């Protein structure tokens, strides 16, 4: 058999193996989508109101930090005397500290000349150390970013979960600027998928939630036991989740608690965001893959494998941007140049698999199915179910985002692949401060799925 036939057959076998590996996480996402009908988890309303603290790391955020802090004091239905807001102004060169204090926050200023420490995890570490030094007996903490807004009952809902025994939890993640432009519509739907579909199914099936940053709740008993925040990596939120899971803690999803964040509104914004995510996740998986597999068997807990499958998506992005297009271009050229247009001709030549026409048909069908099933249909279902939670007044405002959902997936894959080879810093983020924020009027619930305090008590 000619060497080029052997090479083609070997590469085809390797490609088929990689397609199976790529298909497993995608299949998991489809399962989450098809189980959208599962009811959300509701925690019993707690009569006990616990003392809590909010910690907000900030680097040059004078444009947004004031509004974030003010909204907490003005809009939360939780008793004002039972929560404190702490802002860690980390190496700020603007008026972040001054603005945060004026809004009512206690500010810890951290000026660290070491460039290796210019990431958000060191701000969190410093902030938790200072909070422990106050001696105030907080029951739990809530971590927010400088641009985050939360719904009015956020603290009450997290308190309900804490009272029910939850020690680590994440909220529903939505967007401040979902309807800003076509890019944010598609981007928002992509990130919301994990809240509405994946996180709900995980909670109902008793699989650990992915607790990754904005709005996350942590039992302060954990922080006290650790002596502070024990994670200083680029993706500190995910690593903190991994480490607590290995310590035996369960991670939960509090769906009615909604955090709104400022979404990337352009390719450049997405690139900057994904640099941090991809670069951090490469290091994270290199460090924790084998320990997580070990704890899967030690604790007999599927959540470890599920987390790894999800975070391995960045390697899938790399394959989708490199191997997959490279292999199929090569296969089409090889079959075409050798005149192997049919399966019969290919078999006579010693080539395993389809001929050129059959290969092109298979590629077309696969791309079409992925475009419609794994792309547009997911976006449309999200719009149908949760458009109000995503800051839209009418479903039609987000329809274009659903149609562009597959295109953004390609953008996401490309930016994650590039980000894997970058070393990002915690630079000032360009915020969409001029964008209209679609949030409810004071006292109004966000979306029909969020009951009032009285309704929750009746339930």
CATH level-four homologous superfamily name of the domain at 40-266 = Spore Coat Polysaccharide Biosynthesis Protein SpsA, Chain A
As a percent range, the share of strand residues is 5-15%
User: In which range does the helix fraction lie?
Assistant: 40-55%
SSE order = HEHEHEHEEHEHEHHEHHHHHHHHH
> N- to C-terminal separation?
72 Å
What Rg do the Cα atoms give?
Answer: 24 Å
Helical segment count: 17
The count of β-strands is 8
Major pleated sheet: 8 strands, mixed
Give, in spatial order, the strands making up the sheet with the most strands: 3-2-1-4-7-6-8-5
The helix/strand class is: alpha/beta
Mean pLDDT: 87
Q: What's the CATH architecture name of the domain at 40-266?
A: Alpha-Beta Complex
CATH fold-level name of the domain at 40-266? Spore Coat Polysaccharide Biosynthesis Protein SpsA, Chain A
Low-pLDDT parts are: 433-459
Overall outline: elongated
CATH hierarchy, class of the domain at 40-266: Alpha Beta
Description:
An 8-stranded mixed β-sheet has the order 3-2-1-4-7-6-8-5, with helices on both faces. The model is unreliable at 433-459 (pLDDT under 50). Helix content is 54%, strand content 11%. The chain has helices at 3-34, 65-75, 96-103, 120-134, 154-163, 182-204, 220-226, 236-246, 267-299, 303-311, 313-321, 323-337, 343-349, 356-386, 396-403, 405-419, 453-458; strands at residues 52-58, 83-90, 106-110, 140-143, 149-150, 168-175, 216-219, 251-261. The chain is built from 17 helices and 8 strands. It is of the alpha/beta class and 459 residues long. It has a domain at 40-266: Spore Coat Polysaccharide Biosynthesis Protein SpsA, Chain A (Alpha-Beta Complex). It is elongated, with a radius of gyration of 24 Å.
């Amino acid at each position: 058999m000619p060497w080029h036939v052997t090479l083609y057959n070997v590469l085809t076998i390797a490609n088929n193996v990689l397609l199976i590996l790529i298909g497993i996480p995608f299949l998991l996402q489809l399962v989450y989508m098809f189980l959208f009908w599962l009811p959300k988890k509701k925690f019993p309303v707690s009569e006990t109101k616990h003392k809590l603290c909010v910690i907000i790391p900030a680097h040059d955020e004078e444009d947004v930090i004031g509004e974030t802090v003010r909204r907490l004091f003005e809009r939360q239905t939780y008793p004002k005397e039972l929560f404190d807001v702490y802002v860690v102004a980390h190496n700020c060169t603007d008026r972040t500290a001054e603005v945060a204090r004026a809004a009512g926050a206690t500010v810890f200023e951290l000026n660290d000349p070491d460039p290796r420490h210019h990431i958000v995890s060191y701000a969190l570490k410093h902030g938790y150390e200072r909070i422990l030094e106050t001696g105030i007996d907080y029951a739990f903490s809530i971590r927010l970013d400088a641009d985050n807004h939360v719904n009015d009952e956020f603290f009450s809902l997290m308190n309900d979960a804490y009272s029910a025994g939850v020690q680590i939890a994440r909220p529903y993640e939505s967007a401040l600027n979902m309807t800003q432009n076509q890019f944010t519509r598609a981007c928002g739907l992509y990130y919301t998928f994990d809240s509405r579909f994946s996180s709900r199914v995980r909670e109902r099936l008793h699989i650990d939630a992915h607790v990754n940053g904005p709005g996350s709740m942590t039992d302060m008993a954990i922080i006290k036991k650790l002596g502070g925040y024990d994670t200083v990596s680029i993706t500190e939120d995910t690593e903190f989740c991994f480490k607590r899971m290995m310590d035996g803690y369960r991670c939960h999803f509090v769906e009615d608690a909604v955090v709104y964040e400022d979404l990337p509104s352009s390719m450049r914004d997405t690139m900057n965001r994904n640099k941090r995510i991809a670069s951090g996740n490469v290091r994270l998986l290199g460090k924790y893959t084998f320990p997580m597999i070990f704890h899967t068997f030690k604790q007999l807990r599927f959540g470890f494998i599920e987390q790894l499958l999800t975070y391995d998506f960045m390697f899938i992005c790399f394959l989708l941007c490199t191997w997959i297009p490279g292999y199929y271009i090569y296969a089409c050229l090889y079959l075409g140049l050798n005149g192997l247009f049919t399966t019969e001709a290919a078999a006579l030549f010693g080539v395993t698999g389809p001929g050129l026409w059959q290969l092109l048909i298979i590629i077309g069908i696969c791309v079409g199915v992925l475009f419609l099933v794994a792309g547009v249909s997911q976006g449309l279902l999200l719009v149908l179910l949760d458009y109000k939670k995503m800051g839209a007044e009418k479903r039609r405002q987000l329809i274009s985002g659903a149609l562009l959902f597959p295109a953004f997936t390609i953008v996401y894959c490309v930016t994650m692949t590039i980000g894997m080879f970058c070393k990002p810093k915690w630079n000032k983020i360009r915020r969409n401060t001029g964008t209209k924020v679609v949030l409810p009027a004071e006292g109004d619930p966000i979306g029909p799925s969020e009951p009032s305090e009285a309704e929750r008590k009746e339930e």
